[in-house]
Design goal:
2 domains, 409 residues, binds pyridoxal-5'-phosphate, 17% strand, Aspartate Aminotransferase, domain 1, 42% helix, alpha/beta, four-stranded mixed sheet, Aspartate Aminotransferase, domain 2, seven-stranded mixed sheet
Length: 409
C-alpha cells in the first residue's frame, strides 16, 4: 500500500503536525525519506536515538533477544531487567529501580511514590508538590499538571491538586512557598522542552538544601538530560547535587520505549506489593536493548566525546551567527543545545527548523524561540559539519525570503 503525508490528516487524530516528508530508513546520523532524499539527523527522535539509527550492536541485541523472549508481565521477573537494574544502581546514587515504558509513566510513578512516602512518614497534610514554570514532565494528567505550562493541562476537567509552580533559577521565590507541607520538588536539572534552560549551580544546591530543611524529596526528571546527553552519565553528576528520586527514559532505550525510576532503598521500599505497576514495564526486549545502550554510553571515551562534539557545534554555530545575526545565544550542555532567537527573530524558531529540514538537516524547536539540537552522542564530526552547513543554508533561505517580502511590501 502506497501511503503519503496527506493520509495523516484523514486517519490520524490531529494532535501532531508532522513534517512534509516521511522518513523511511536511517543509519547512524543519516535518514532517507520516501524520495530517497538524505537528511542529517540533529533531532535524534527528540533526544532518544542516543546511538543513532540501527546501531549494529543494538540491532544484534534486538535480534538475539527477539528470538528468545519478548514479554512476560511482572508476574515473573527476567534476566535483562535484573541486569539493567543492577547496572543502573551500580552507576548512580540509587539502590532500586522501577521500570515503565515512557518518561511520563516513570514521572507518574515518582510523584505517586513521593506522596506515599510522605503519607507513611508524616500523614496526609504533607502533600504539596512544587515544580517550575516552563518545566515539562509528560502528558499523563498528573505529570502534565506538574508541568509548568497550564495551557497543556487546561480543558480536561478537574486537575490533580496540591501542585504549586514557581520560577526556575529563583531560590528566593522557592524559599517563600516551600514549607513542611511540601512533599516533593520535581525539576529538570536542565529544562528541555521549556527552552534549553541551564540551571544556575547555586540554585540547584539551594533547592537541595531547602528540601533537606523541610523533609521534602528532590525528584530530578532526567528523561531528557540523562544517559550521557550532557556529557555526564546523568546531569546531576555534573551539578554535584544528588536527588532522592531520578527518572530516565528517552535516551535510555536508544530508540526502544523504556523508562526507569531510580531511588534509594529507604524511599523505594514504600512502593509495597500492589501499590503501583505496569503490564509492559521492564519487559525483557526493551531491557536487553537498554542494557546494551547503557554499556556503550557509560564509558569515559564516549562521554568525553560528547563534550568535544558540543565544542564543535558551538564553534560552527558561533561562526554562522557572526554572519547572519539570528541568535541571542547558544545554550545547553553536551548534545542538548539550543539557539535562542534574538529580538529580530522572536517567535520564528519553527521557520528555521522547517527551512533546515528542506535543506537536509533535521532539528527541533523548544518553544517558539529556540531551535534545539539533540543528536546522537556518537554522531560523526563530518556529519556535524555537513548538517550545520545545511542548517546555515536554511538560515540564508529564511533571510532571503524575508528580504524578498520586505521588497514587495
Ligand atoms: C519527553 C519528556 C518527558 C515525557 O516523556 P514521554 O516518554 O514522552 O512520556 C518527561 N520529562 C521530560 C524532561 C521530557 O523531556
Amino acid at each position: 500500500m502506497q501511503v503519503t503525508r496527506e493520509l495523516f490528516n484523514d486517519v490520524m487524530v490531529p494532535n501532531y503536525n508532522p513534517a512534509a516528508m516521511i522518513p523511511v530508513r536511517g543509519v547512524g546520523s543519516k535518514i532517507w525519506d520516501q524520495d530517497d532524499k538524505e537528511y542529517i539527523d540533529f533531532a535524534g527522535g527528540i533526544a532518544v536515538n542516543v546511538l543513532g539509527h540501527c546501531h549494529p550492536e543494538l540491532v544484534n541485541v534486538l535480534k538475539e533477544q527477539g528470538e528468545k523472549l519478548w514479554h512476560l508481565s511482572n508476574v515473573y521477573t527476567n534476566e535483562p531487567a535484573l541486569r539493567l537494574a543492577k547496572k543502573l544502581t551500580d552507576a548512580t546514587f540509587a539502590d532500586m529501580v522501577y521500570f515503565a515504558n515512557s518518561g511520563a509513566e516513570v514521572n507518574e510513578a515518582a510523584l505517586k511514590l513521593a506522596r506515599r512516602w510522605a503519607l507513611d512518614h508524616y500523614g496526609p497534610e504533607k502533600d504539596q508538590i512544587i515544580a517550575f514554570n516552563q518545566g515539562f514532565h509528560g502528558r499523563t494528567f498528573f505529570t502534565v499538571t506538574v508541568g509548568g505550562q497550564a495551557a497543556y493541562s487546561d480543558g480536561f476537567g478537574p486537575k490533580p491538586g496540591a501542585i504549586t509552580h514557581t520560577a526556575y533559577n529563583d531560590l528566593a521565590a522557592l524559599e517563600a512557598i516551600i514549607s513542611d507541607k511540601t512533599c516533593a520538588i520535581m525539576m529538570e536539572p536542565l529544562q528541555g522542552e521549556g527552552g534549553i534552560i541551564v540551571p544556575d549551580p547555586e540554585f540547584v544546591k539551594g533547592v537541595r538544601a531547602l528540601c533537606d530543611k523541610h523533609n521534602a524529596l528532590l525528584i530530578f526528571d532526567e528523561v531528557q538530560s540523562g544517559v550521557g546527553r550532557t556529557g555526564d552519565l546523568f546531569a546531576y553528576m555534573g551539578l554535584d547535587v544528588v536527588p532522592d528520586i531520578l527518572t530516565s527514559a528517552k535516551s535510555l532505550g536508544g530508540g526502544i520505549p523504556i523508562g526507569a525510576m531510580l531511588t534509594t532503598k529507604a524511599i523505594g521500599s514504600h512502593l509495597k506489593v500492589g501499590t503501583h505497576g505496569s503490564t509492559y514495564g521492564g519487559n525483557p526486549l526493551a531491557c536487553a536493548i537498554a542494557e546494551k545502550a547503557l554499556d556503550i554510553i557509560n564509558d569515559p571515551t564516549i562521554l568525553a566525546g560528547v563534550k568535544a562534539k558540543e565544542a564543535l557545534f558551538r564553534e560552527h554555530l558561533t561562526r554562522i551567527n557572526d554572519k547572519y545575526q539570528v541568535f541571542s545565544e547558544v545554550r545547553g550542555k553536551g548534545m542538548l543545545l539550543g539557539c535562542a532567537m534574538n529580538e529580530k527573530y522572536q517567535g520564528r524558531a519553527r521557520d528555521f527548523m522547517v527551512a533546515a529540514t528542506e535543506k537536509g538537516t533535521m532539528c527541533l524547536i523548544a518553544g517558539i524561540n529556540v531551535v534545539r539540537f539533540a543528536p546522537s552522542l556518537v554522531i560523526p564530526d563530518e556529519d556535524i559539519i555537513e548538517g550545520l552547513r545545511r542548517f546555515e543554508e536554511g538560515i540564508a533561505h529564511v533571510l532571503a525570503q524575508d528580504a524578498l517580502a520586505a521588497e514587495t511590501a
